[in-house]
Amino acid sequence: MTPFDKKTKLLLHKLGYLRLELETKKLELQEHESEFAKRYKENQEPEVENESITSQDQEDSKIKSVDNLSASSEESKTPESPESMNEDMLNTVDNSPGVTDDIKKLWKQIAVKTHPDRTGNDTELTEVYVRSLDAYNRGSYEEIIEIAMQLFIKIENLSSETLQVLEERTKTLEQDLKDISNNALWAWAEATDEKKTVIENILRNHRKKKKRR
Predict the structure, then answer these.
(1) Which DSSP string corresponds to 18-38?
(2) Could you tell me if 162 and 100 are in contact, meaning their C-beta atoms sit under 8 angstroms apart?
(3) b/e map of 76-91 (b: 16 or more CB within 10 Å)?
(4) Host domain of residue 91
(5) Residue 56 lies inside a defined structural domain of this protein
(6) pLDDT value at position 185?
């Protein structure tokens, strides 16, 4: 059992939900991008004689996914193979700027239970270790807490600093979701076929004007 009060539990549940929803929407956005590129190519007017389509032209026909997602959405830098667990590694964690002490303590407890040096290269636990390190590097405190709970690590009351970071992360994830919903590609995906055609024609005309410049 954890000593979290009702407010903290609700906050952690909300973060878990928002993170899952964001991951789902990102996947949907990728599918929309593929669908748009396919439709755009199929309905594209033939190029003028002797004018070849360059790879850049093909790339321009796609609408990119959300470009301005916040740091919580950026690509994770997961290590291919965990470094040896030694005092230097633990000291690096201790000296990590901007990470609260209770999260540092939790991550070190996770590392002791899951690092290959301690588990004889157990595959499942190594995956947990890599996932926890990725979450640590991204500042995803709620994931660290979730993993600690899954490993039955005793968690003390979270500090006010950690709770503040969790509150800010909630706002960040909510903004990320709004950014996706406001993305032009998302609007295209939710439009009727007739409106999709209108959007595609507007894009074609825009590209033609750019080429003439």
Answers:
(1) HHHHHHHHHHHHHHHHHHHHH
(2) yes
(3) eeeeeebeebeeebee
(4) 1-26+82-182
(5) no
(6) 87
